[in-house]
Each structure stands twice: as structure tokens, then as C-alpha cells.
Amino acid sequence: MPVPDLFFAMMKEEWRIHSTVFGGLWFALFPVMITVFAFLGSLALPIFSDAVPYTVAALLAQIFFLLAGAMVGSFGLMGREFMNRRFGQASLIAYASRSLPISERRIFATFLVKDTIYYILLYVLPFTVGFAAATPFIAIDPGYVLLAFVSLTLAFLLGLSAVCFLSTLYAHSVRLLAVTLVVLAFAAFHIGAGIFPPHSFFLDPGPEPLGLSLLFILIPAAISVLFVTVDYPDQVKRFKNSFDSLAERLSPLGSEHFIAKDALDLLRSEGGAGKV
Questions:
Q1: pLDDT in tens, 71-101
Q2: What would the DSSP string read from start to end of 186-250?
Q3: Could you tell me the CA-to-CA distances from 9 to 36, 74, 92 in Å, in that order?
């Protein structure tokens, strides 16, 4: 299958998954909602500027998109269990190498490109449009619009590539993942967790913070593509039957049995609710 065909098939699959879960119209309006909230939040910046300076507000927005990228990158934990339980025998294109003559590396590289474009259009661009619409009312240089778009994109891709990298480590060895997390925590503690290249680029645009951001994005992504695998460590898990008790507590919401099943599927899948 040519890469462009694979890319567009993945884009359609991503849309169908979200529109099935949230409803086509509601999901289509999601970028509009982000734009409106970004516009209103930007209008409020001068009001709260004494308590939350603009640089701090920018850092908070970048951290939000870092976490959004991490959530998107958690497909390695989510797609294997939760999606299959939710949709029964549904098969994701990410696992097509098992049945089609397509290499895992080509699929995963295309998957990363798809996620990059799809979620920048879904998250980052609407947020930037909302911020841009507010700049005439809050006396902010319109030049910051492009700067905000680039820095938020870098933050998102940093979270995406980091979690894909950690998911790849998990697929090969849980111990290797644990050691890597310890090393990263140690490095962050001694070097300083405050060093965040996308934010540094926003404060002082230049080749150094931009290059450092791209380095932190491209190296984990390249490692993930080179060593990708869809075969995860097999584990036997047993849980106490808590379906009836949970459904009873959720009865005021209606459709309690469906909600209870999805909640238990999520909590018992790899990563639990933390990946959301």
C-alpha cells in the first residue's frame, strides 16, 4: 500500500473512531469549542495579568498541549486493550502488519505523521485562531500569534514523541522502561525541570531553543520507529467482580451498565485512567 493511501486511511479511521464515540456533529464542533474557549481565555488575560503574567499563562498553555500530546501518544497502551474491548473485534490499521504486507516501521512512521497533522488541526490550530481573534482587543503584538502556534506545536509533539518512545520501551521490556523513567527523573531533578525548550523558544525565539526542541522530538520518535513492535508482554490479570456494585452506584445517571463496563475496561487496561 502506498504511503499516501495509508496516511489517508489512518486519517479516516481516526475520524470514525472519535465520531463513533462522541457523535459526528459533536466531535466536528470540538475545534469550534476550543477556538471559543481560547478566545474568551485570551480576553481575560489582561484582567488576571497581575496574578498570572503572560509568560506564566503561555507556560500553562504549553504544558496543557504537552499533556495533550502525551495523551495522543498513549495509543500503545490504549489501542491494544481499551479500544478492542469498546468496539469488540474492531481492528486498527496500526496492527495491519500482522495480516498485510506492510512493515511495522512504515505503518508507525505514517501513524506519527497522521497524529501530528490530525491533532495540530484539531487542537493547536483552533486554539491559535482563538488567540489571534483576541489580540486586537488585548493589545498584544500579532506577531505573537505565529510564535504561540510554533511553541504550542513543539510542546504537543514533545509529549507525543516522548510517550511513543516510552510505549516502545514498554513493548520490549518493562524493566527497561522502569530504568529509563528513573534516569529521566534523576536528570530532570539535577538539570532542572524548568528547562522546557518550547517555552524557552517562546520567550526568546532563536535557533538554539528551536533546535533543542526538535532534537527532543525527533530522537525519541526515530527510536520509536526503528524499534517499534505491536507485540506487548503478555500478562494474566484477575480482578474482583465489581460490575454490579459500580452499576448500582451509577444508576442515577442512566445507562449505568454501559458506563460501568466502559469505566472498568479503562481502569483495567494498561495505564488505567492515567493515560486519559
A1: 887 755 555 555 555 555 456 676 666 667 7
A2: HHHHHH-TT--HHHHHHHS-SHHHHHHHHHHHHHHHHHHHHT--S-PPP--------HHHHHHHT
A3: 30, 20, 11
Same domain, 170 and 133: yes
What's the pTM?
A: 0.78
User: Is residue 83 within 8 Å of residue 17, measured between CB atoms?
Assistant: yes
Clarify whether residues 92 and 42 are in a common domain: yes
Q: Position of cell 486493550?
A: 81
pLDDT in tens, 191-224: 655 578 999 999 889 899 999 999 999 999 999 8
- 268 with 223, same domain: the answer is no
How many separate domains does the chain show?
Answer: 2
Handedness of CA 20, 23, 28, 29 (dihedral sign): negative
Range of the domain at 200: 3-232
